[in-house]
Structure formats: structure tokens, C-alpha cells
Amino acid sequence: MTTKEKLYEGKAKIIYPTDDERVYLTYYKDSATAFNAQKKGTITDKGKVNCAIASALLTYLEKKGIPTHFIEKVSEREMLVKAVKIIPLEVVIRNIAAGSLCRETGLPEGQILPQPLVEFYLKDDALQDPLLTPDRLALLNIATNEQIKQLQTLAKTINQHLIEFFKSCQITLVDFKLEFGLDHQNNILLADEISPDTCRLWDTQEQDKEKRVMDKDRFRKDLGEVESAYQKVLTRVLNQIEKL
Ligand code: C5P
């Protein structure tokens, strides 16, 4: 399949159209950013690791009945996906308090939430991805009420599947971000990636607050051993996929 000029380049990936208008090729880069690109760096082989983790998790979710954009992994850093128009919302699901939830509400890190929290952020770098209230979400007209309800239901269902999957990898799913897109028939598909870049993942067997971190917080907080943490997640995910 031949690819054309890139369609979009994000912080961690490049999207190319292909000669089939219903298919895009996603290329995973090693570059890493945090705090809305104020902090920039490279995580060696992150592209390969995240491409492999995202491929495995999207395949797993698809088998559980979640409609995703994933078609197939075609190289170490590339996957073919269904062409979708991304809904400009970042859907964050939280099971345990961490990150901006703690910063903005004062909840202590590590507090288990009584029920998963689903939040919508506007996907807009220039505006620094603000958290939206339900009224602002309705005002912006980004999605219909029906679509918002669908996104909430999908997010909660995906969360349940991922909690269960990561638990079997001895990993606690603290929180994560999802993006969704619309295909040619206006169906909502889970898009983008699921990886240590987009999830907070804590090693279930590790009590130490720094050592347990297996995700991008190692890069954000300069905790070191970023590459090996990502690699560990990959190994555990692939081992578990083999057992299924
Ligand atoms: O920063 P915050 O605590 O709001 O992040 C919640 C979750 O969403 C984290 O797992 C983080 O990695 C993810 N996230 C993301 N991309 C963003 C913002 C948050 O993957 N732009």
C-alpha cells in the first residue's frame, strides 16, 4: 500500500493517507512531550513499544466488542487504521486520583474513586486542552447529546475491560485518555492509541510510590528508567495476550 504526503503530525505520531481513502497509516515516533509540549524529549524505541502495546490492546478491545479504528500492525512502528474524523475531545477516565485531578481538587494521590470518573477535555493545544463542563460541552456543539452519551458508555465499558486486562498483568490502571473518531458512515470508533503515553499504570506488586510508576509520569517527573518501564509493560501485555 503506497502512502502519500502526511495528513497530520502530532506529538507522538504521524498519520498518512493511503491509496485507499478508507485507510490511514499511523507511524509511531520516539518523541515525547509533557505539560502541553513545554517539556520535550525522546524515549528510545518508544514508537516501537507503543505501536506494539496499542496494537495488542486495540485488538483485545475489538474482540470484546468495542468498535475501534485498528486494522493491522504492518511494521514495528506502523499500523493501518480505518480513516476517521477525530472528534476533538480527550476523554479521560479515572479510577484512582492522580495528576491533574489531585492538582486541581486537592484529592490525595492514590485515593480510590467511589466510581470511575469520565471527563471531557477540549482537544486544542492552543487552548491547553481545557476541562469542559457539561454546559460548555453542549455549547461548543462538538458532538450531539446522543453521541456524548455513547462516548460515556463506551469509555466506561472500555475502562472495565482494560482494568481487568491490566490486573491480569499485575498492573493497576489508574487513569487514561481516549480519543474517538467518526467513520464514513458516522459510526463512533475508538481511535488514537492506548499506551504508557496515554495511561497511568502502576505496578501492582510495588508499594514504593516512585518505583511503581510504569508510564509517562517517569518522563514527566524525571524519575529515570523510562525505557525499561515501557518495555516491562510491553512484555507483560504480550505475555497476557498469549495466554488468552
Ligand atoms: O494530566 P491528567 O492527570 O489530566 O491526565 C489524565 C490521564 O490522561 C493520564 O493517564 C495522562 O497520561 C492522559 N492524558 C493524555 N494526553 C493528554 C492529557 C492526558 O494521554 N493530552
TrEMBL record:
The organism of origin for this protein: Cyanobacterium stanieri LEGE 03274
Catalytic activity: 5-amino-1-(5-phospho-D-ribosyl)imidazole-4-carboxylate + L-aspartate + ATP = (2S)-2-[5-amino-1-(5-phospho-beta-D-ribosyl)imidazole-4-carboxamido]succinate + ADP + phosphate + 2 H(+)
Annotated protein name in UniProt: Phosphoribosylaminoimidazole-succinocarboxamide synthase
NCBIfam families in the cross-refs: purC
Pfam families from the UniProt entry: SAICAR_synt
Protein family membership: Belongs to the SAICAR synthetase family.
HAMAP family: SAICAR_synth
InterPro entries linked: SAICAR_synt/ADE2_N (IPR028923), SAICAR_synt_PurC (IPR033934), SAICAR_synth (IPR001636), SAICAR_synthetase (IPR050089), SAICAR_synthetase_CS (IPR018236)
Gene transcribed to yield this protein: purC
UniProt feature coiled coil, ranges: none
Highest taxon in the source lineage: Bacteria
SAICAR synthetase/ADE2 N-terminal domain sequence ranges: 6-236
Enzyme kind, highest EC tier: ligase
CDD domains attached to this UniProt entry: SAICAR_synt_PurC
Matches recorded under PROSITE patterns: SAICAR_SYNTHETASE_1, SAICAR_SYNTHETASE_2
The enzyme's E.C. designation: 6.3.2.6
PANTHER family (alphabetical): MULTIFUNCTIONAL PROTEIN ADE2 (PTHR43599), SI:DKEY-6E2.2 (PTHR43599:SF3)
Keywords in alphabetical order: ATP-binding, Ligase, Nucleotide-binding, Purine biosynthesis
Gene Ontology MF terms in the entry: phosphoribosylaminoimidazolesuccinocarboxamide synthase activity
Pathway assignment: Purine metabolism; IMP biosynthesis via de novo pathway; 5-amino-1-(5-phospho-D-ribosyl)imidazole-4-carboxamide from 5-amino-1-(5-phospho-D-ribosyl)imidazole-4-carboxylate: step 1/2
